[in-house]
Amino acid sequence: GAKSAGRRRFLQFDESMQDGRRDVLGIENELRAALQVGQFEPYFQPLVRLADRQRVGYEALVRWNHPTRGVLEPSQFLAVAEECGLVDAIDWQMYRAACTNGVELTRDGGYITINVSPRHFQGNDLDSRLLGLAASAKLDPSRLRIEVTEGTLLGDPEAVAKQLQKLANASIATALDDFGTGYCSLGYVHRFPLRMLKIDRSFIEPLGGRNKRRSEAVIGAVLALAGSLDIEVLAEGIETEAQHEALLAMGCGYGQGFLYGRPRPAAHWLPLDQSRAA
Ligand code: C2E
Ligand code: MG
Ligand code: MG
Ligand code: MG
Q1: Separation of 104 CA from ligand 2 center, angstroms?
Q2: In the chain, which ranges are continuous DSSP H helix?
Q3: Which residues line ligand 1 (CB under 6 A)?
Q4: How far is the CA of 59 from the centre of ligand 3 (A)?
Q5: Angle 87-105/24-37 helices, nearest 10 degrees?
Q6: Where does the EAL domain start and stop, copy by copy (predicted)?
Q7: pLDDT truncated to tens, each residue of the chain (278 aa)?
Q8: How far is the CA of 45 from the centre of ligand 3 (A)?
Q9: What is each CA distance from 1 to 8, 9, 83, 91, in whole angstroms?
Q10: Probe ligand 1: pick from 61, 99, 247, max atoms within 8 Å of CB?
Q11: Backbone φ/ψ region at 101: left (φ over 0), alpha (ψ -120 to 50), beta
């Protein structure tokens, strides 16, 4: 399944490095050591208003700053970390750094988002943990948003809705990530206090091409529903001007994708000096 695929991918990666095969225990030890010295860090990708392409926020995406292999992406280590039970620790290391970076990144307004997996809803303390993190980073909680997937909502809908409401009361808004890939019907999302729907990249990819009709129909329906519920809509994975123009014409408010910027370390997005900030 997904777990062994993750392990396989890491091993393939390893083999290509010519430093011999490692077993999962070796990877686990390496992940633990990486946690100890803090090698997990957020990269930030801009979220933009389509009308003027201005940045309204940034999504924090975890990277493993590996001393010899370079910067690793989630697909290269999250599955194996999951298998070793280390994703929680990695997440919290990354959330902490994201909040710290978030202070500067949101100084002129806007927000940062973090990806929160279903596991973090198992306890009943997500709101207090996130508020504690924001407080120790001196980040205003209204500058922090979370992203959850449909799977999270469907797990234990009533309990999750309650926790999202507690977060909303603490001014931490929620975005529904990868919308359209799971089993949430359009009529189901109104049960949850959501601030934003992020339409999955698979619906954006066909825009501007031959097979755009179906995608346009789905996106149109999402925009109509979200509009009536006063929920913001963001299109993920925008890579071309044609996609940008199509979404703008349909009335989609926000976008994210390589067209506007790839994920980069926080410093990339900050003013280099006062003259640039002025
Ligand atoms: P996601 O939350 O849907 O994040 C968006 C992914 O799409 C990112 O991949 C981003 O680099 C990629 N992307 C953005 N724009 C484009 C584009 O125009 N074209 C293409 N082809 N891709 C684009 P990334 O950083 O590799 O992250 C993959 C997934 O890993 C995320 O999907 C999220 O589910 C998970 N993830 C990332 N950071 C964390 C974290 O801190 N904790 C947990 N638990 N999961 C995380
Ligand atoms: Mg996300
Ligand atoms: Mg996403
Ligand atoms: Mg996605």
Answers
A1: 21
A2: 2-16, 24-37, 78-83, 87-105, 126-137, 150-155, 157-169, 201-204, 212-229, 241-250, 266-269, 274-277
A3: 45, 61-62, 73-75, 87, 91, 94, 115, 117, 147, 177-178, 237-239, 256-258, 263
A4: 9
A5: 30
A6: 24-277
A7: 444 555 555 545 544 444 444 566 788 899 999 999 999 999 999 999 999 999 999 999 999 999 999 999 999 999 999 999 999 999 999 999 999 999 999 999 999 999 999 999 998 999 999 999 999 999 999 999 999 999 999 988 999 999 999 999 999 999 999 999 988 888 889 999 999 999 999 999 999 888 899 999 999 999 999 999 999 999 999 999 999 999 999 999 999 999 999 999 999 999 765 444 44
A8: 11
A9: 11, 12, 11, 22
A10: 61
A11: alpha
Q: Nearest residue CA, atom 11 of ligand 1?
A: 263
Question: Which ligand lies nearest to the CA atom of residue 182 in the structure?
Answer: 4
Contact 242, 235 (CB under 8 A): no
Residue nearest to atom 4 of ligand 1 (CA): 61
Nearest-atom index, ligand 1, CA of 200: 3
Confirm whether the ipTM is greater than 0.95: yes
Whether the pTM exceeds 0.90: the reply is yes
Orientation of helix 2-16 relative to helix 24-37, angle to 10° = 80
